[in-house]
Specification:
about 20% strand; Retrovirus_Pol_polyprotein; Alpha-Beta Plaits; four-stranded antiparallel beta sheet; single chain; Reverse transcriptase domain-containing protein; Rev_trsase/Diguanyl_cyclase; RT_dom; 2 domains; globular; three-stranded antiparallel beta sheet; alpha+beta
């Protein structure tokens, strides 16, 4: 898949500087610094699904399948008039993105809308949940589950959307999904995430506190009185407070 392409020396371009981020799997991802572009981009207000609502459904399912879209954003092309805005420079030259990159303001909303459109029927029938590039299929019977998996894979084949098999789990009665351990009998927080919180150093600056609160807020539904407990910490993030 041709994600980036080198630009000729005779082209006059505006450029951005790339940087690497470390993903949760320990691998690095190359991103462009698109902050300036994002400042001038009109926000796409398309809503991302609420995970707690999906977890309630998964906790009642007997069979669960999780699929991951392979490099999901990069499977989307970029319109020619937008490519000129997606350029970056490195020691090997100047390159332009030909596929949807990480770091663009509306990328998650665009991808979510696309996936919701593709699987609208299954979502209305109540057997599939899509969170950006994560697809969760759930059912109470094995017969239904096999049929649902077949429908999803057939749709992928039809639109030429690829999945990462090594990140997929088919027909499980218990698995890790959406940062939780789910089964038809229970719903638990992924203990690896709990350990990650406990190992985080005490925040020393506002950005570190905001990062910690954002991380902890993901599990607010599992913590009684979360708003009350964290209220003083949120106050420390105010502009008129000395941290």
């Amino acid at each position: 898949m041709d994600v980036i392409r080198k630009i000729g020396h005779n082209e006059i371009v505006e450029i951005t500087t790339p940087f690497l981020i470390t993903w949760h799997d320990g691998k690095s991802r190359l991103c462009g610094d698109f902050r300036a572009l994002n400042n001038y981009t009109k926000a796409d207000r398309y809503s991302i699904p609420r995970i707690p609502h999906a977890l309630d459904k998964l906790a009642k399912a007997k069979y669960i399948t999780k699929m991951d879209i392979m490099k999901g954003f990069h499977q989307n092309g970029v319109k020619p008039n937008s490519i000129k805005l997606l350029r970056k420079i490195c020691r090997m030259g100047i390159y332009k993105y030909t596929r949807m990159p990480f770091g663009i303001k509306n990328t998650p909303a665009h991808f979510q809308r696309m996936m919701d459109t593709i699987f609208q029927e299954g979502m209305l029938q109540g057997w599939i949940f899509v969170y950006i590039d994560d697809i969760i299929i759930y059912s109470e019977t094995w017969k239904d589950h096999v049929q649902y998996i077949d429908k999803v894979l057939s749709k992928f084949t039809l639109i030429n959307l690829k999945i990462s098999l090594k990140k997929c789990n088919f027909g499980q009665q218990e698995l890790l999904a959406l940062e939780h351990k789910v089964s038809g009998l229970s719903l638990e927080i992924d203990q690896n995430k709990v350990a990650a919180v406990l190992q985080k150093p005490v925040p020393k600056i506002i950005k570190e506190m905001q990062s910690f609160l954002g991380f902890a807020s993901y599990y607010r539904n599992n913590i009684n009185n979360f708003s009350h407990i964290t209220s003083s910490l949120y106050q420390l993030c105010s502009k008129d407070v000395v941290f």
